[in-house]
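Progress note, project year one: complex with fe (ii) ion.
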Amino acid sequence: MSKYVLQTAKDPANMTPHEEKHIPYIEAPDKVKKGEYFQVTVRMGKGIDHPMEPGHFIQYVDLYANYYYLGRVNFTPDTKAEATMTIKLDESCTLRAYEFCNLHGMWESSREIIVEE
Ligand SMILES: [Fe+2]
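Model obtained:
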């Protein structure tokens, strides 16, 4: 797979170990209140930690609400590829996480969030 391609799980129910290491795993409430802060944790990955070594590591993870940019966390090989951001939303949306591995490129995952008045 080319590192210039946006990658995601081909079959989310049966991910390969390579996919499990790279797919950002988004933990967040299913429902939140409009305008109230809540926490979103993104882990790379699920069940298997991505390596964090000078030659191979996750460089950053970006978080979006649909296609609206929320924030970025940068990593070094001395950190764990895991980030918690505190955010608020005005309307229901798809949270999207994009993580970049220096060897294996960009990986995407998403989850729906319902925002109630
Ligand atoms: Fe990687």
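The longest strand covers residues 105-116.
The chain has one helix and eight strands.
No further modelling is planned for this target in the current period.
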